[in-house]
Amino acid sequence: MTTEEINRPDPGAADVDEQAVEEFALRLVDVITGGLLTPLLEIGRRTGLFESALDGPATSAELADRAGLQERYVREWLGAMVSAGIFEYAATERRYWLPVEHAAVLTGSGVENLAPMAHLVTALTRHTDEVARCFASGGGVPYAAFLPEIREVMDGLWQPTVRDLLVQEILPMAPGLPDLLTRGARVADVACGSGNVAVTLGRAFPRSRFTGYDRDADGLEVARTRAAAHGLDNVEFVLADAAELSPGTSYDAVVVSYALHDQARPAQVLAAIREMLVPGGTLLMYEPRVSSDLADNVGNPFAPMTYAISVLHCLTVSLAEGGAGLGTAFGEQVALDLLADTGFGPVTVHESAADPGSAVFVTHRPA
């Protein structure tokens, strides 16, 4: 489409399509309504209302009693849930229930439960004023400003994915890697956060040794506590900036999970990882599955959320350090360019069947 072909109507002109205006206004109301409902989803998750609803239909008083909450608040919350189509309501009996199909994605500890995403939204939107100021002044909101809440959020989001998918589905995407870990290997988890990946791998592959690197000291303490709780002596955690890694140890494999796009110096991170790997060593990188070209992302149901998360967190924490500002939606093509520029070999990109919004990049340090 050329510049001349782009329609830039005058809102007061006679040829404005009033039906299109009305349709867009209704869509915008839906967007705003969704924004208001998201904190209520988080309330439902945090207070146990969704889980309490699994016991069957209830009045507002009965549901409040199950969850140990105040009935008046629960009743108003239910009003929002019913009118939004999340709960069902029998007016004659004044009873509410959560359909089993809805409960499947709002309850439980598996990857199917989307309710923890609401916590991510509320944690990020808390910093809207700070991010908005950066639009004019430049710079960004530092990662430390999001702590400790963002650590808790990401920990809650990652635990089911790592527990249910990492060993069973993601590792086998790197041919030979599960067998190597079974025999015994050294693996680094770069930007490891609270240690979900390293601890999970440490439990699954007792003959291998795992080292997690991160610069969040408090997060590493959580990771060490988690490893100790499982009695793991093959897992350790080291305080370090991912862009400045020079551990003096060679690794057979490195794992990076949803972390490259946050980095201020992503190219330096990948270069450091390449140097850490033995010749022929494997890099397994997990990132959002989007294109680097906006035009390709139109129609991708995950794209609006990906760009929004980027503006509110991933982009701004990088720019706060004067960084590259890759952003969450940096995309497959940029990822491939970065890997090539930092000396990695051919890359295979996989889609996770259970997590279609993510891509798994598998590559190696040339032998």
UniProtKB/TrEMBL annotation:
Every S-adenosylmethionine-dependent methyltransferase Rv2258c-like winged HTH domain range: 38-107
Pfam families the record matches: Methyltransf_31 (PF13847), WHD_Rv2258c (PF21320)
Domain Methyltransferase span(s) in chain numbering: 182-298
Keyword Methyltransferase recorded: yes
Keyword rRNA-binding among record annotations: no
Origin: domain of life: Bacteria
Molecular function terms, GO-annotated: methyltransferase activity
A Gene Ontology BP annotation from the UniProt entry: methylation
This protein's UniProt keywords: Methyltransferase, Transferase
InterPro entries: Methyltranfer_dom, SAM-binding_MTase, SAM-dependent_MTases_sf, WH-like_DNA-bd_sf, WH_DNA-bd_sf, WHD_Rv2258c
PANTHER family according to UniProt: METHYLTRANSFERASE TYPE 11, S-ADENOSYLMETHIONINE-DEPENDENT METHYLTRANSFERASE RV2258C
Name the UniProt record assigns to this protein: Class I SAM-dependent methyltransferase
